[in-house]
Design a protein that fits this description.
By secondary structure, the protein is of the alpha/beta class. It has helices spanning about 1-5, 35-40, 50-55, 60-75, 110-115, 120-130, 150-165, 185-190, 190-195, 205-215, 230-245, 265-270, 280-290, 295-300, 300-305, 310-320, and strands at about 15, 20-25, 45-50, 80-85, 135-140, 175-180, 200-205, 250-255, 275. It contains 16 helices and 9 strands. Strand 8, helix 12 (about 265-270) and strand 9 form a beta-alpha-beta unit. Helix 4 (about 60-75) runs parallel beside helix 6 and helix 6 (about 120-130) packs across helix 7. The chain binds phosphoenolpyruvate and magnesium ion.
Length: about 325
């Protein structure tokens, strides 16, 4: 099997009926890129920049960030690289930032909420990204977007830093796509409105599931409610993809669900464009997709979306794909 996978390393990803999708990888540091390329990754679908900020006693400088982003972009060449801006708070604490202790950290002051209130942290990251953009195919993504205003504010700060750099004579790429993570139900529900303003969506199912089911993703006692295949989740994913495609935008997924062999046929049928997963899942996923017909999976869509339970969904998918 390893040999069969290896043959697919430098191949694009097509379904049995000739539809193309993109298989990308999630990374945390520039050192992870080698593994992505060795495993046939067609892009980076999520670069979690938190690691630059963690395990240190102070903020990373703009220069350190510029070097890290440039390294990833250069290693990836023309391939797309989606960099997510800082997602701290929740489970990810930073000692030097003096984040407040909260009763519900996952519903609290984190990610874009923190960044919009702390421009001294956010602006250097945006500048580093803009400066690095000339070294590859950069796409910028904001995490934990709950409202359209948050997206507009974040994008305005980005444009402001771009203007400033251009005025200083610094080169910035003219075609950086700017998108958001869809990991809060409010954003999935009004994806139609967001789709007019963003360049792309990436569905973060790790959080989207926990917020939709009101089940902490780390709490074993309620893990029975953490259901990726619950029809509620599938309907939200469907809403996002339909809204995006109507506006000619693409949709990726960077939560664990994107690399899951039960979810992959469902997501193909729902029309997902990009699947971002851990590097080692890419070749198995490519092998699986080669043997799936997009047309057939699409024909199951309405049935799946109308089902009552996750269990029914799983049984149906297993029956149809075995
Ligand atoms: C997600 O929420 O699905 C996601 C990819 O982000 P993280 O796991 O970093 O919260
Ligand atoms: Mg998340």
């Amino acid at each position: 099997q390893q040999q069969e996978w290896a043959k697919l390393k430098d191949e694009p990803t097509f379904t049995s009926d000739g539809e193309q999708v993109e298989l990308a990888a999630n990374i945390g540091t520039p050192a992870d890129v080698e593994g992505v390329l060795n495993n046939g990754g067609e892009g980076i679908g999520l670069y979690r920049t938190e690691f630059l900020y963690m395990g240190k006693s102070e903020l990373p400088t703009e220069e350190e960030q510029y070097e890290a982003y440039t390294s990833v972009l250069e290693q990836m060449g023309d391939k797309p690289v989606v960099v997510r801006t800082l997602d701290v708070g929740g489970d990810k604490e930073l000692s030097y930032l003096d984040l407040p202790k909260e009763l519900n950290p996952f519903l609290g002051f984190r990610a874009i909420r923190f960044c919009l209130e702390n421009e001294h942290v956010f602006r250097p990251q945006l500048r580093a990204l803009l400066r690095a953009s000339v070294h590859g195919n950069l796409k910028i993504m904001f995490p934990m977007i709950a409202t359209l205003e948050e997206f507009r504010k974040a994008k305005a700060l980005l444009l402001d830093e771009k203007e400033a750099l251009l005025a200083e004579g610094v080169k910035v790429s003219e075609d950086i796509e700017v998108g958001i993570m869809v990991e809060i139900p409010s954003t999935a529900v009004i994806a139609r409105q967001f789709a007019k303003e963003v360049d792309f969506f990436s569905i973060g199912t790790n959080d989207l599931i926990q917020y939709t089911m009101a089940a902490d993703r780390m709490n074993q006692q309620v893990s029975y409610l953490y259901q990726p295949y619950n029809p509620a989740i599938l309907n939200l994913i469907h809403t996002v993809i339909e809204a995006a495609h109507k506006e000619g935008k693409w949709v990726g997924m960077c939560g664990e669900m994107a690399g899951d062999s039960i979810a992959i046929p469902i997501l193909l049928g729902l029309g997902l464009d990009e699947f971002s997963m851990s590097a080692t899942s890419i070749l198995p996923a490519r092998t699986q997709i080669l043997n799936l017909s997009k047309k057939e999976m699409t024909s199951f869509k309405e049935q799946l979306l109308s089902m009552g339970t996750a269990e029914e969904v799983v049984a149906f998918v297993k029956e149809k794909t075995e």
